[in-house]
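The following record pairs a protein chain with its ligand, 4'-deoxy-4'-aminopyridoxal-5'-phosphate.
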Amino acid sequence: MNHHSNRSWFLQTMAQTSDAPLMLEIERAEGNWMIAPDGKRYLDLISGISVSSLGHGNKAVIDAVQQQLQKHMHLMVYGEVVQQPQMQLAEALGKVLPEHLNNFYFVNSGSEAVEGAMKLAKRFTRRSGFVAQLDAYHGSTQGALSLMSNPYYSDNYKPLLPDIHFIGMNDIEALNNIEIKPAAVVMELVQAERGCLQATQEYVSAVKAFCKSTGALLIIDEIQTGLGRTGTMFAFEQYQVEPDILLLGKALGGGMPMGAFVAPKYMMEVLSVNPVLGHITTFGGHPVCCAAATAAVHQTTDRFQEFEVSRKEQLFRTLLQHPKIKAVEGKGLLLAAHLKDEKTCRDLISYALTQGVFTDWFLYAPHALRIAPPLTITDEEITFACETIVNFLNFQD
Ligand code: PMP
């Protein structure tokens, strides 16, 4: 690649998804930092969007990957061959999940977990409709995209799935006015891409009551909130609710690509009969990814006290008190600092990068700054990040 600069080769060969790619070149990453080829260090304030919760280069995860590499990589399409790493992951997750969530379908990504769960809900209930929340994000494949209310992102791909009924998060009246009997209600408990809007307990209880009275399943998408990010292993633990189907991804794989939909065994069984092969994947439950995920789950549970997620949330909230920050929304280390407008946020992101702080905005809240660092972030690093943000706001008119 000597005849190309990295930047032009990147732009020429890598499919672009925006007209203004970030173009930050990173050579390696360790702990809570990402390091450029020239040695410049960037504090990771977003964890590759809520993936690197254990920081970069976690030793237990790397050891697990290396050990599994020595034994075997891919063997056969999902679900046929008995493989220890998959069963070990089921055991590790089983220890931290409610008893009824005892059957696991391991897939390759968050979107695929959403797809699998939607198919499972349709098969189990023999219904076709879904209730989804306005401004939710569940993924980019066409089933998951059907759950996206925002026409800017979905209109060009229509027709998508029919019978999707959108309601505003926390709008109990709208919920009570739904006339269809859906296969499932799909929801996040913190709508990250909306700028970390939290579901209220009243709303979640109303959703559960709606599901009970209509026979709909409750699918909770914890792809971004899971694995400790909101201060408990799963966000649903903070609500008096348990999902019928739980969706996991992102941090689950400890940095490897990994998703899962989790349901009671009696429910999941419908995928295996008449017709068989209700969901097929070649790479889902990849042994190396499962080994990494098992280590990630163990690391998260064993070290959870040490991470002090709630105390770090409070430190962020204290240090981010500033007249130009309208609100800090969210829970645990899934936070959004809401600013005056999109331009302020974009300028702040650019400034922070020059100072060595790597952050981002949100899909439906471009005026809000994304704060989702590794759970291993230190107090000094939080202080450095917040000082950088406050410095910018002090000097910006
Ligand atoms: N659900 C939620 C809540 C997400 O945040 C995301 C990814 N941002 C997804 C689903 C889709 O996951 P993936 O990008 O791995 O397909």
